[in-house]
Amino acid sequence: MSAGVRGWARDLWLGVRLSVTGGPSAWIRTSLTTVGIALGVTTLLLAASVPQVVKGGAEREDARSIFGNSVEERGDDTLLARGEGTEYHGVRISGMELQPDAGERTTAEPPPGLSAFPGPGEMVVSPALDRLLDSPEGELLAERMDMRRVGVIGDEGLVGSQELYFYAGVDDMPEQGALRIDGFGQSSDDGELHPALLLLILVIAVVLLMPVPILITTAARFGGERRDRRLAALRLVGADSGMTRRIAAGESLVGALLGVVAGGLLFLAVRPPLARISVDETSTFVEDIIPSPTLALIVLLAVPLLAVGTTLFAMRSIVVEPLGVVRQSRERPRRLLWRLVPGLLGAGLLALMLGGDFSGSGIAIVQAATGVMLLLVALTALLPWLVERVTGRLRGGPASWQLATRRLQLSSGPAVRAVSGIMVAVAGATALYMLFDGVRAENSVQTHADLERAQGDAHAGTTDRESIDRAVGEIEEIPDVETVLHYVESFGTLWRKGTEGPSQETANIVVADCSTLVELAHMESCAEGEVYFAPQDGDVTASVPEPGDVVAVGASAEEMADARGLWTVPEMREVEPRDSPNGLPVRGLLMTPEALDGLWPAEGSVAILMRADFDDRDTLELVRNAMADLPEGDASTLVSERISSQLVTIQTWMVIGASGVLALIGCSMLITTLEQLRERKRLLAALVAVGARRTTLGCSVLWQTAVPVVLGIALASAVGLLLGAMLMSLVRISPDGWLAFLPMAGAGAGVIALVTLGSFPLLWRLMRPDGLRTE
Amino acid sequence: MSISHTLLGLLEGGPRHGYDLKRTFDVHFGQDRPLHYGQVYATMSRLLKNGLVEVDGVETGGGPERKRYAITDAGVTDVEQWLARPEKPEPYLQSVLYHKVVLALLTDRSADDLLDTQRAEHLRLMRELTRRKIAGDLADQLVCDHALFHLEADLRWLELTAARLDRLASEVRS
Amino acid sequence: MTTVSPPALLTAERLRKTYGATPALDGAGFAIAAGEVVAIMGPSGSGKSTLLHCLAGIVPPDEGQIRYRDRDMLTLTDAERSTLRREEFGFVFQFGQLVPELTCLENVALPLRLSGRRRGPAEAKAGELLARLEVEDLAGKRPGEVSGGQGQRVAVARSLVNGPRLLFADEPTGALDSLNGERVMTLLVAAARESGTAVVLVTHETRVAAYSDREVVVRDGRVRDLAGAL
Questions:
Q1: Which region is the signal sequence (chain A) (predicted)?
Q2: Are residues B130 and B144 in the same domain?
Q3: Do B130 and C224 touch (CB under 8 A)?
Q4: Is the pLDDT of residue C201 over 90?
Q5: Is residue A422 domain-shared with residue A494, that is, in the same domain?
Q6: Measured in whole angstroms, how far is the alpha carbon of residue A576 from the centre of its chain?
Q7: What ipTM score was computed for the predicted complex, to two decimals?
Q8: Which residues of C, range 198-227, sit inside 8 Å of B by Cβ?
């Protein structure tokens, strides 16, 4: 028995030595395997860290929450809190205004990450915001957030390292709209994810992780043919088949273990930069990027086992004889039937769900994930059959085509194996791309904004004429702003003529000068003092006032009783309504200030429309700064369609990631091709002697790569589109975007080019007549 | 006969006594059959008569008197012609060819030239045999093949010998 | 050197070719007439194969002149020489010249296909050649499934399929036993004579060289014409 163990150890060790000392080709093979497995391990470790990343962020967010802590009575340990925020250069900056009831004497606990409450006019900011405010890039923001910075929020008070967050101290917070609390933090409640989003995450997980084991198994077989020949040489000197198997296992173990180590190191190396990245205003801390111990252990054990297992499995179908490698007898033609089973099962599982809603329940998730996985597995099962069938039927064509197809017919194994790795990535990416397109279209709102008439829009929750005029004046000073229009929107309780008291009805009031009014309604002429009426279609919340009715302009119903601020509706001219340039409908009573008889709406909002050039992104920030003093003042540029930028980002990254997988597999195909060419040195030289042109032989290499890749990508695209359409139907988005396969198909073409062009230098070299020399 | 040419050739290296000649001959060619001194004496007499050698001097010492022979110009020409003339290709030629190769090497002549000449002669015959073989019936083929293989073997042996003697030659000459 | 010879098909003069520091050819000359079978002999490393490669336009010599019919081979472009080899020359090597994936028939048809001939006619012609070499029953087999001697006969069939004027055979029997070697040589020479193809036969075996009309010996990069020697 001990001899058996010793034998095992000796064989494994021999394999290890062969992989290290086998010359440059063995090194290249081992390092390719290492790189492949390392990438796989890194991805898996990152995936295993996701739970902690999500959990850590959520916990800290909960810890600073003000909800669930509200109290009625004010006391020494209570405070008023109100969410605040702004946007700067397209990034959201959130924060909280705090006002302890007992002022400096307060006994309330400050929020996490703060040692004390900021006093009035002071603020405490997150490190990222601190850096932004100090940078030249944040100059305009510093103007807006001009409170004294008295500290930096500690990590425990932030969701992520790059979060832009602040706490500001105030002493004039109105109780209305604020929350009185006696502490921070709430017990977490599981927020319900939107089913579509859940499905997205699910598919991403499956699609991103599925190629990893395939990549690992492919990587474990890099350069396998040469290894088989080496093993044959070992058999010639007396190794039995068991020994060769163990030696092969030892050899692949080296790549696998090196890959695990390199993957671990790579994981450690990417943590800090990952923590510094902020995607869609979300970031994390290095400390949170920690794989769950169980998952990490599984990864570290499973990957080497998978690699060695693949090697042994691959060797099952070949017999290493002392004089060479024999593929097991004549392979039977591949059967279609069982290869269809996983695909049909997968499609069936997804189809069953098509009728109902995707509820996001446990069973539905498992069903969807299983379906997606089965469909992707089906791809790898179908491809060998497809390649065999298609190449088996290829006849005729030029000599280069014949050379390539015959080679594929005789042994399509290595090519197909390499392509299988590509397929899952391509199919998954195509499906996701399509789904994203759909979700994006769904989430992209038609704003109806008319960019011809205005390019920017600002608003604030005030009707105060003085501050509005000041803000408008400041905006007009901004260099890139051409013209500024503004109107005040308000509403007033309606007291019908001849009735006893105010009704429950209200009337919309829009006040602006004539130059603005013509933008808000189709009117032939506009005169100061005139009142116009734009009827609202189908809007039941606002009533149609009649001349003689009384409207409480800027007065509540109680004040109406005091007969203050009452305004009688005069004769009106009905006008056809027209959407404001910002896309919002303007309805109701339209008038110039003169028509109000000296009255002015007390409640309401102001909208400011700008014709301006916002190419300089600081222009918008200048407008925001002008609006900063107004309550809820903010500004934005007008867009005809609001698309969700994070989806674009994810889509881009997905294509980049999938292309990375393609590139890696392209490299392995290139290695195989180069090895094959080197083996045929003599034959190539003989063909050149016979008069074969470079182009003929070059084309033959091209076809040899292109045929399986094109077939693979075509199949993968078809399955990807099918999968995408099914997923979209699941979340009730009408399937569209049938061209979603184009980016990945393009990447596939890139792989073909890479392999072909990469093999040309060697091909040209081998085509020199030196190959004919017998030495 | 080849012994006379061989002895003549050996004299090209310098004048020698009859006994000396016998010893040198035995070193190179006498492995199975050493030369009788009487044979040397008879051959030398004949060569003297034909003017191919001359007596370079006579030594009188303790023993019998000894004549020293030297090669004449006519002798050198005779050796040269003999070496350049291909032997009629026939089986079992090796002793003659061997003598020729060794002598060529010993006398600083080109063994390659000798070989090429002989090869051409052999090939002439081999081509003829090959033609006969292709045209003939099975019996012809077998007969021709027998001859062909022998001729080929002769040539190969000769080439091998020449290659090996190259080193010997340099040793002998030094 | 006053041998009267028929007009030469291919002549080469003063060829010089050096690989690295080793001179492979050092002033070699050669001539072959139409329909003639000439053997090039010589010890290994003497430059026989290099001479053949130069004559066939596979390797350009460093110096010298090669004329094929009225053309100066050295002024032809690489593409022109490839075309010449495809259309006027044939090649047989010692081993490793058949494409393992193609059937024997397809291998024989390959030179025609490389010249752009259509599959049908090319394979019909290839079938004829296989029959001439008495291996027509191998048509559907792959090179890996036939014996060495059979493979060489397929290679000879391939070298003759395009009706070449000049066939270059580099140790065509080098990997065969004598009986198979004799078969291949008999068939090769017979087929070449039948179609009037001249043959340049590189060999180190005298028995193989005996199939030629004439032989030259390459020694130290120079050619000696045995017929003309002395």
A1: none
A2: yes
A3: no
A4: yes
A5: no
A6: 44
A7: 0.82
A8: 205-207, 209-213, 215, 217, 219, 224, 226-227
Q: Are residues B101 and B155 in the same domain?
A: yes
Cα–Cα distance for residue pair B149/B131, rounded to 1 Å: 15
Same domain, B53 and B90: no
Under the banding of pLDDT at 50, 70 and 90, the label for residue C130 is very high
Contact A597, A459 (CB under 8 A): no
Q: What is the pTM for the complete model shown? A: 0.63
Tell me the domain boundaries of chain C: 8-225
Q: If 0-12 CB within 10 Å is exposed, 13-18 middle and 19+ buried, where does residue A22 land?
A: middle
Which CATH number describes the domain made up of C8-225?
3.40.50.300
Which of A406, A410, A769 is nearest residue C58 as measured by Cβ atoms?
A769
Higher pLDDT, B164 or C24: C24
The pLDDT tens digits of the residues spanning B60-94 come to 766 666 788 899 999 889 888 888 888 777 656 56
The answer, yes or no, to whether residue A327 has pLDDT greater than 60, is no
Q: What is the mean pLDDT of residues A606-630?
A: 84
> Taking a C-beta distance cutoff of 8 angstroms, is the pair A721, A740 a contact?
yes
Query: Which region among A243-252, A459-468, A632-641 has the lowest average model confidence (pLDDT)?
Result: A632-641
Q: Per-residue DSSP letters for A330-382?
A: SPPPPPSHHHHHHHHHHHHHHHHHHSS-----HHHHHHHHHHHHHHHHHHHHH
Residues B116 and B73 in one domain: no
**Nearest chain C residue to A682, by CA:** C96
Q: Do A95 and A122 reside in the same domain of the chain? A: yes
Q: What is the largest CA-CA distance in chain C?
A: 54
pLDDT of residue C128 exceeding 90: yes
Q: Measured between beta carbons, which residues in chain B are less than 8 angstroms from residue C189? A: 134
Which one-letter DSSP state was computed for residue A191? P
Contact A689 C91 (CB under 8 A): yes
**Residues contacting A185, CB < 8 A, separation 6+:** A62, A63, A64, A65, A69, A112
Tell me the DSSP string of A247-305: HHHHHHHHHHHHHHHHHHHHHHHHHHHHHH--BTTB---GGG----HHHHHHHHHHHHH
State whether B80 and B101 are in the same domain.
no
In this predicted structure, which of A244-253, A315-324, B127-136, C9-18 has the lowest mean pLDDT?
A: A315-324
Q: What is the per-residue pLDDT for C45?
A: 77
Locus of tokens 């009715």: A549
Residues A412 and A708 sit within 8 Å (Cβ to Cβ) = yes
Residues B78, B106, single domain; the answer is no
On whether any CB of chain A is under 8 Å from the CB of C87, the answer is: yes
Q: Look at residues B44, B69, B85 and tell me which one is the last residue of a structural domain.
A: B85
CA proximity to B47, closest of B23, B21, B24: B21
Give the gap in angstroms from C-alpha C217 to the nearest C-alpha of chain B. 8
- Name the one residue in this structure whose structure tokens are 């009267």: C4
**Residue A59 resides in a domain:** no
- Structural domain containing residue B57: 1-85
Angle between helices A241-276 and A293-316 (to 10 degrees): 140
* Crossing angle of helices A645-679 and A413-443, rounded to 10°: 170
Domain count, chain B: 2
CA distance B150 to B144: 10
Structural domain span for residue A650: 331-444+643-775
Residues B90 and B173 in one domain: yes
Which H or E element spans position A665? Answer: helix A645-679
CATH assignment at residue B15: 1.10.10.10
Final residue belonging to a domain, choices A581, A616, A641: A641
Residue whose C-alpha is closest to residue A201's, from A727, A734, A729, A735: A727
Does the CB of B150 have a partner CB in chain C at under 8 Å? Answer: no
The per-residue pLDDT for A554 is: 64
Mean of the per-residue pLDDT values of chain C: 86
Cβ contact, residue pair B119, C230, below 8 Å? no
